[in-house]
């Protein structure tokens, strides 16, 4: 039935012993013609320990029906999932391992096409990295956000309101009992975080890239339309196999340019920068950190969602979803970029009205005029660093202050609330040893909690600088992803408490006001280097030895590029 020779026939066709073995063990009641059909792996990141994705098993059943209906053979394939809130020390340490496991599972098995079921933060990025490397026809079904929960009449945004409420507890304006009482209100239903955090961002960005059926991303996990779309996706992937529509045939630089526009217009998570760079790296597309600033920084934020705004993902879906957002910035999109449907992304914008202009602002009245990611450079970040103006305080976008330096997150926690800590509202908090190699895994710690004594004085934001990441649900004037990181020889390792740090977002600068000669003469202190990770074995060792810096996506050096779908040796 397929226009192209199915890859799976390498396993199943013929009457030799190996074909017999491959068929016989898979048969288990399947009819003879099951092996002549496109074999579709439904890569499922669901597990009890990935609570945001647990419902994907039901979604997989809908995909399975769609694959069957279109004449394919569906095969559910559990793959490595990562529960963002559960996995220690940080899910980012395991993103590349998950991507590698998925890639090898896709390549090693007799499959012709892939449906990728993800949701929680690292799951869609790792699925896309794997699919890009193995280059089989692939389409993502994002699991969708959870429904809006309310606590005492007020909607709660996952993550963002945890930070807000916990700071209120620290400031003494909320009781610990009430804080605990809000837990089940915050996590009201199946699905991933409902703010514009990393999961929501990556689902929407995956659609802007062209890897999701247009209009699907952002459908709430509890919405029956998700199952309908999953069924349709199952049908579509069979068509994609017939058309040989592989990632390398439709994911281009233009697709990434559109994803960057979308990232800015939705006010998305800074984590998307690292993930998009990593996915592009798998495709051999020369995407750079500067592309995010060049393409995205002038794009207005139109979506009024937490943490930058007021609403939540359910509201965005009701208001028209990503396609309605993209309709507002259509002139900024590259019309040549294609999607899994085989049609350009812009073709899907003709009938995508905005139903609620409070949630999706019109272009003439944006939430933030220039809202994309700003890329900073300077003697503190020669390889670049990022800041998200939409989540920052306008009065801190140009700032000078004395550095208060912490060598590790443990050092930070030990000293930040010390009443004798020499810190004031103008200080710049510097946290190092939190990059890909130093921690390891580049944890989401850059949005350091403020010193208790300053919170009690009413201070709600300070400039913070870190080589780690920040949760997509967090906010604040945070300079993050500093590259090279301290543990990779970056100058961040050389900053001392009391040095003056200057931030100028408009000029795209982040500098320490120490002259070049003195900076060059400094060496990191023993306390600084002692905090860097030195794993002896296992994945952490492999990771630290091979991880690249944030400015290229923090992938492993030997995982960049595509190896295609060909297995290295046939079995005998
Ligand atoms: Fe899973 Fe936020 S913890 S999406």
Automatic annotation (TrEMBL):
Keywords attached to this entry: 2Fe-2S, Amino-acid biosynthesis, Branched-chain amino acid biosynthesis, Iron, Iron-sulfur, Lyase, Metal-binding
Molecular functions (GO terms): 2 iron, 2 sulfur cluster binding; dihydroxy-acid dehydratase activity; metal ion binding
Pfam families, sorted: ILV_EDD_C, ILVD_EDD_N
Residues of the Dihydroxy-acid/6-phosphogluconate dehydratase C-terminal domain: 358-554
Occurrences of domain Dihydroxy-acid/6-phosphogluconate dehydratase N-terminal (ranges): 37-346
A GO BP annotation: branched-chain amino acid biosynthetic process
The enzyme's E.C. designation: 4.2.1.9
Family: Belongs to the IlvD/Edd family.
Protein's name in the database: Dihydroxy-acid dehydratase (DAD)
Organism: Modestobacter italicus (strain DSM 44449 / CECT 9708 / BC 501)
